[in-house]
Recover the amino acids of this structure.
């Protein structure tokens, strides 16, 4: 389901299970790949993409969810918690992460893309969409928080409530992705960007801790104090 390769300072995580629909098996394979990235030392970055030319990730594995008995997708009961934990781990990974969105990114696939530091999307094909409303599913609060952090407010409501399908150029125009590229150039562009960012992770502790300060339990953005108060009393907020 997952291939992890390394060239220089750049790890490439490739999902290779067709539509790359999420189940417990995929969660655990991605988690194992992140273990390898985290256990490396020195400058590093990670690019995530898909081997399928049409799909980055088409969301939750609905056939697995609706099936009965044993299934190769794994234990259904633990999926929700393990998936959310994985996304929290990805968003605070102590190396720069670049997502090459080479096809449709729906639901859980869109979430995964948003958990990266940089997103580059194919310009001529594919949609990014939080399609829970279309499926009659409420978006969990942690997922809403992720979208609010990662999507500018002018696009947030359209994304989570109106299930808007964003093309690459439209996603770029509202700040959901940072760049778009042709299918032929997408992975190369993402890899070069990752290589540029890799030196930032030379000190993994500093890089990871700052992500925690942005997205973690005591995130600065969630502080009850305004920035003026914090600046005036900076010694209290080290």
């Amino acid at each position: 389901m997952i291939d992890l390769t390394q060239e220089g300072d750049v790890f490439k995580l490739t999902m290779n299970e067709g539509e790359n629909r999420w189940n417990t098996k995929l969660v655990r394979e991605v988690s194992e790949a992140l273990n390898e990235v985290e256990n490396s030392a020195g400058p590093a970055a990670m690019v995530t993409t898909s081997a399928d030319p049409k799909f980055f990730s088409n969301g939750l594995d609905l056939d697995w969810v609706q099936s009965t008995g044993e299934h190769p997708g794994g234990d259904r009961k633990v999926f929700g918690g393990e998936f959310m934990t994985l996304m929290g781990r990805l968003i605070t990974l102590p190396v720069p992460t670049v997502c090459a969105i080479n096809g449709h990114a729906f639901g859980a696939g869109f979430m995964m893309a948003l958990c990266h530091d940089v997103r580059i999307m194919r310009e001529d094909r594919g949609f990014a969409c939080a399609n829970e409303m279309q499926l009659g599913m409420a978006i969990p609060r942690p997922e809403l928080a992720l979208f609010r952090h990662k999507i500018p407010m002018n696009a947030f409501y359209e994304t989570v409530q109106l299930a808007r399908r964003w093309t690459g150029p439209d996603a770029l125009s509202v700040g959901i992705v940072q760049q778009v590229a042709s299918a032929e150039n997408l992975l190369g562009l993402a890899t070069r960007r990752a290589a540029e960012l890799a030196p930032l992770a030379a000190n993994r502790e500093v890089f990871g801790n700052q992500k925690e300060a942005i997205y973690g339990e005591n995130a600065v953005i969630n502080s009850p104090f305004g920035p003026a108060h914090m600046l005036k009393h900076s010694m209290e907020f080290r």
Summary: The first helix runs from residue 24 to 38. DSSP finds ten helices and nine strands in the chain. The mean pLDDT is 95.
